[in-house]
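Minutes, project huddle
Topic: does the predicted pose make sense with flavin-adenine dinucleotide bound?
PN asked that the exact inputs be recorded in the minutes so nobody has to dig through chat later. Recorded below.
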Amino acid sequence: MNADVDVVIAGGGPAGLMLASELRLGGAGTVVLERLPAPTGLSKALGLLGRAVQTLDYRGLLGRFGAGVVPAAAYSRFAHLGGIPLDVSRLLDAAPPGHFPPPLPALQAQVEQVLEERARELGAEIRRGHELAGLSQDEETVTVEVAGPGGSYRLRARYLVGCDGARSVVRKQAGIGFPGTPPTHMLRLGDVTLAEADLSRLPPGITRTATGLFSAAPLGGGVVRIVVSEWGPPPEHAGRDVPPAIEELEASVRRVLGADLAMRQPRWLSRFTDAARQADRYRAGRVLVAGDAAHIQLPAGGPGMSTALQDVVNLGWKLAAQVEGWAPPGLLDTYHAERQPVGERMLSFVRAQGVLLSPGEHVTALRDLMSELLMHEQTLRYVVDRLLSLDVRYAMGGDGAPAHPLTGGWAPDLPLRSDEPLDGILVRPDGYVAWAAAPGDHNTDRLRHALQKWFGVVA
Ligand SMILES: Cc1cc2nc3c(=O)[nH]c(=O)nc-3n(C[C@H](O)[C@H](O)[C@H](O)COP(=O)(O)OP(=O)(O)OC[C@H]3O[C@@H](n4cnc5c(N)ncnc54)[C@H](O)[C@@H]3O)c2cc1C
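Predicted holo structure (tokens), as shared on screen:
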């Protein structure tokens, strides 16, 4: 086999950069191809919640976020279900310690900066200004065509991972389908400066009016993220590639909110939709997809970057094991088996939130009902766990008999004490429990099975 590098990653966004570190931690060599010559400094995502924060903490990266996390008590500022506020503070006292990781209100640009720094430290090669233009694969390698600053060249790798975002060239050229639901409406976005007087009269959260939706999130320094949407299908002429003019944004806010906001110094103007699509397979031979390349959705509740990070933390150690030669048969395919259902469930949750954000009396009635249901602690806990991906659980039992309740879930922090209700625990590199035994459980077959299935160890 004649490859230039173990793994080529297309795309240096959050997914690609995190994957580069994960591969290096597992001993694999990697080159990241990023078409942009330099970071733009712009941020789609404004923060991370739940399991994604736990995962960064697990990798020792939270301390790199400057002011960093805010107390879990501040969750209620960030958490909502289709614009219905979720009072997470009501759950904190009853939750086991550490159940709700603190929110990380870090802009995507900062997340990317931290992840890039870490990937470089670990020895990943990041080539900026290099765009993947094409690919082909055979039994043993993937060959990618790259358009670089010095001209075009070819790179051969044992595996290629498309972390190249929603319009992934990798996904398309690997022949991976992207079925889903088309856009039902368009949203306009502007990171703009507002006058002090306007800042003080912005409504909190998401405002749903007879004409559309409005939200405003302060980004600091007088800059505010305005998102506005008007009911009705996306206008034919409004291609997503054409950013709205600031006047267009102002006029839309006027129609939705009935207020004039004087916007200045636009830092970023954009539009997006509620299209929801998912790759029909996460692997095609030696090509895999992760992050937005594998699923796109309305950023309701901010699931995109969080899911992207969790995709690649699931994939990284398995792919490294594959190229390092110790992966047991089928290990790499558990990436699709585990992450595709998580993505599908996330899309379903986001679509449901999209309905709650739709117009009409019937939806208002549904929102009222949801608000009442959310008064019940059990319902609130269920919804919050789902929003924060704290309910992610992989099927790892194996022999059909009831497994230890920790099996398949995220490994909680447990004190190393002899009086714990646990005699042993096997944790995978992504932080999930592959096997656990209660005191007195002398069935070593399950441990043997887990060691073999996940680590190829025949004991
Ligand atoms: C308005 C908005 C708000 C959001 N808010 C949140 C939030 O609060 N929380 C959250 O978790 N998520 C949020 N998201 C979603 C989040 O931004 C995305 O899910 C996230 O960026 C996905 O990361 P990624 O690495 O998969 O893809 P991307 O961030 O799209 O990165 C892909 C990278 O690949 C590069 N690339 C593309 N094609 C090629 C090629 N052919 N060759 C080389 N490089 C290529 C691109 O330049 C880019 O750098 C939001 C999204 C939007 C639109």
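Observations noted during the meeting:
- The pocket of flavin-adenine dinucleotide is lined by residues 10-16, 33-36, 44-48, 108, 131-132, 163-165, 169, 189, 272, 291-292, 299, 302-306, 308 (CB under 6 Å).
- Residues 334-356 form the longest helix (23 residues).
No decisions taken; revisit at the next huddle.
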